[in-house]
């Protein structure tokens, strides 16, 4: 077994009554999986809170009709909607993927925030007024009003394809984190946690989704801050973190290179990032549905800018987490030594390195990762219920559905799509780094969809054909 010495970091591990330095990789990895009953307790409390919210909106304050189930009665509040939007974008993919990107390639990715602000201005003045004034339930209703039913169906199919390929990634990532800190197989974790998410989403509708998102965002943000603060202290302070990253050239000035083969440049991040955020935040059902749940366009605009502000802070902290990982492991790469089996297990490894000895804290972090994932999953499932009802069923039935039939259809949709996504986790785990994979898969469906919406709004001479 290969022997390694972890210089410059405190990776001495208690095994029995001895403190052993220079253990084999497998021994160190196993010893770092210190998930105690307090950690499991923190994790279970988060899941229990989500179930309570679903129970409240499913059985006590129930939705009276499809509009309330899907749109929250169009009277939601600005702050919870902004928190819900943040939770939908910052899934476990971002929480684990962005630190990994910075650890491996440097902070160049952070400059994508420029594209985020361009997107916000364009969305506020071009797309949002059109969608809000039309009072839509399914975003793709716009296609039928502007073009015809076939274009609407095409847009809905594109969205469904994108969502069903994205949600398994969302489910897989937190299971990967859970595996790193506990050793529990991902195929045991994903079905158990997803059953809870499917329950509260199918029972409570959009209101349950939004309010569980608020709880989950607070847990997610708190756990991330906790880890980077403790990691910074363990690395010797902010100056050490900065210096070690500076010396390794991970702190980079904006790259203005015109070479299209460069991994990241200012042009690809600002222009490409703008289009990427626009296709994911301006025209997709799962995002627009929350903006349309607000009563006025003024409220929707306020929610948009609050979301952008919160997202900027969160992405910056995720990037800094990658710098902290490098500062701690700069003399011993966990990927080379196989201490982390996957690139996206680096942040969970940092968690066990920095706060693993404090009972309950690793559990809060894992709860944060799962919170980020569950919020994205619940939003995706709720938006799929809207698409199936509004675009795949209502246009093709002769006799209008009763309220009972509508509710049953939406609940069954949530359950079926959830089960399919859990099954597809087996495929996802063989496909590589999650951040890069997510951006690639999203573009397949969201790019053409953005093109159709943009032509409809800005090019009046384009017809359905």
Characterize the structure shown.
- With 465 residues, this protein is mostly helical.
- It is built from 19 helices and 2 strands.
- It has helices at residues 25-31, 37-60, 66-71, 78-89, 92-105, 113-134, 141-146, 149-182, 186-234, 238-247, 266-281, 285-291, 297-329, 334-337, 346-354, 361-393, 403-423, 425-428, 434-458, and strands at residues 13-15, 18-20.
- It has a two-stranded antiparallel ribbon with strand order 1-2.
- Helix 4 (78-89) packs across helix 13 (297-329) and helix 8 packs antiparallel against helix 19 (434-458).
- The longest helix has 49 residues, at 186-234.
- Mean pLDDT is 81; it is low at 1-32.
Summarize the structure.
The chain has helices at 25-31, 37-60, 66-71, 78-89, 92-105, 113-134, 141-146, 149-182, 186-234, 238-247, 266-281, 285-291, 297-329, 334-337, 346-354, 361-393, 403-423, 425-428, 434-458, and strands at residues 13-15, 18-20.
Which key phrases capture this entry?
465 residues, 19 helices, two-stranded antiparallel ribbon, globular
Helix and strand topology:
Layout: E1 13-15, E2 18-20, H1 25-31, H2 37-60, H3 66-71, H4 78-89, H5 92-105, H6 113-134, H7 141-146, H8 149-182, H9 186-234, H10 238-247, H11 266-281, H12 285-291, H13 297-329, H14 334-337, H15 346-354, H16 361-393, H17 403-423, H18 425-428, H19 434-458
Q: Work out the helicity level.
A: over 70%
Order of helices and strands: EEHHHHHHHHHHHHHHHHHHH
What is the radius of gyration?
23 Å
Total number of strands: 2
Distance between the termini: 65 Å
Mean pLDDT: 81
Main sheet: which strands, in order across? 1-2
Total helices: the number is 19
Give the biggest beta sheet.
2 strands, antiparallel
Helix/strand structural class = mainly alpha
Any low-confidence stretches, pLDDT <50, length ≥5?
Answer: 1-32
What general form does the structure show?
Answer: globular
Beta content: under 5%
